[in-house]
Amino acid sequence: xAIGYETIREAAQKLVETVNYExxxxxxxxxxxxxxxxxxxxxxxxxxNILKSIEVSRAEKIPLCQAPGHAPLFFVEVGxxxxxxxxxxxxxxxxxxxxxxxxxxxxxxVDAVTRENTGDNTARYYPAVHVDLVSGxxxxxxxxxxxxGPAPIKGIYFEDMGPNMEAVVEYVLQNxxxxxxxxxxxxxxxxxxxxxxxxxxxxxxxALLRPIGSRNPNPKLAKLEERILEAVNQLGIGxxxxxxxxxxxxxxxxxxxxxxxxxxxxxxxxCWPIRRGRARIYRDESFEIEVY
Amino acid sequence: MASTHYLSTPLKEEDVRRxxxxxxxxxxxxxxxxRDKAHRRILELFEKGEKPPFDLEGAAIFHAxxxxxxxxxxxxxxxxxxxxxxxxxxxxxxxxxxLGVRAIVGFGGMDEKTLEAMSSVxxxxxxxxxxxxxxxxxxxxxxxxxxxxxxxxxxxxxxxxAENWGPLIxxxxxxxxxxxxxxxxxxxxxxxELRKKLWGTG
Lengths: 292, 202
Description:
A: CATH 3.30.1330, globular, B: alpha/beta
């Protein structure tokens, strides 16, 4: 039996609506710890507002933030043991349209030329959907994340990064100093090294799905993550961008192959209300939602 | 020592002159949301000698675009929170000097030219936490009116009814002080220090 259009739509809409009003427990925990260790009075006030908004949204089922960013971004993993309705992307579009109509998403996608609001957060390539086929599973995982509007603003090529990735650290630090305060810190930072510009941008976005506290299995990249996190948290930007100790909650780095003498490097600067989660849809069309 | 102020719109010059960077403000009265398209339209009207269908003399404007929901034939407020202010820098002196705006509320602060206009005319920039919209929304009773809805929900001008909305942090005052000028300097300096530590160079 194939997982049908209506099941995908229902699971996706429920997922989008839930992540908009329900902050994941690991996110809340990270913010509470930030509040405890923060020494700046202004940053503590901002963290207090953040923690309050988490409580208000959970109690009243209203969105954490009015701005959905680049509309919900989907990563779909289809297991080898399931069949899925081929109108998957249409079902996700309808889910986004439905969540918009029900007041969980502000219509925030406009025609790039005329600037006319499309009214329902959809366009030809909105919501963005990436599909992967995965072996050894008989279910579908729908992941969603809400990228801040300007989050994917940074992505470039380096000719030579040096064996210790100095240029990557330097690049992220420059980005955080130049725009980090405006992107609703405390931030999540992702970096993808390798590939062409579209590949590293996509993988940098996918890295936004990683659990808080997770480290890249490659020890060299794990070390790079810790190095960037430590350095960024010495900049003094803080929650709310008014000065403080906790500028980033976590850093996730991914790397892949690339062409002989260049490598793409992409860096996302993601706001604290990351609004992400997963809907796992089983063969019998039942599904469960996890917010993290 | 930072103090707390309770203010109502329309604001008078003496209301905002009392405020100092670091103070907290709770605001009541009408607050106008103003984003990219509305700023542009107001400037176009001004250049033709025309006025928008709302009066910003003594007003508090809010860099924000809400989620609104139709309840019967009326618009209900779902959530609203601040957007990134620096992109409105080019309109800062205009709305203060020409339209009489006394308070700009947003996130991320504005530039030196806006700060100059604030000093000379008497206006302030108030900051609220980015992303914390549902907590921010507790300060509003709903909408009084909406203008220019044809711009789309985020870009329309919504008249919000504020009731002890806050705490808003005075981040730029009318005495030439800006939290952001000092911060930006300190972040650049810390980056230099980090570079020395990490790479041994400046």
